[in-house]
Specification:
This protein is of the alpha+beta class. The chain contains four helices and three strands. The longest helix is centred in the last third of the chain and has 10 residues, at 52-61. It starts with 7 loop residues before the first helix and ends in an 8-residue tail after the last helix. 13% of the residues are buried.
């Protein structure tokens, strides 16, 4: 049985993929980068990449837990 390996494409997501997977508009991600807020990202030249695990952690940190009635 072959060991499962994650590919770089699965570990790092461009803004378009984050937008599609997590229902976060690309414009929101761009605005958060400009404000230096939001999920951690890597910039290689003009290319933006989000480490998937970091993006998922950031998204989870945005959860709002309503008070129990």
């Amino acid at each position: 049985m072959e060991a499962h390996r994650t590919t770089p494409e699965a570990e790092y997501l461009p803004p378009k993929a984050c937008s599609a997977l997590f229902s976060t508009p690309e414009s929101t991600l761009a605005n958060l980068r400009w404000q230096r807020r939001g999920p951690p990202y890597i910039k290689r030249g003009s290319r933006i990449l989000y480490p998937r695990a970091d993006f998922e952690r950031w998204l989870e940190s945005q959860r709002i837990q309503p008070d129990a009635a």
